[in-house]
Amino acid sequence: MTAIIYQQPKSAMQSGKAKVDTWILEFAPSEARRADPLMGWTGSGDTQVQVKLKFETKEAAKAYAEEQGLVARVRATPPKGLKLQAYADNFR
Question: Could you tell me if 62 and 5 are in contact, meaning their C-beta atoms sit under 8 angstroms apart?
Answer without folding.
Answer: yes
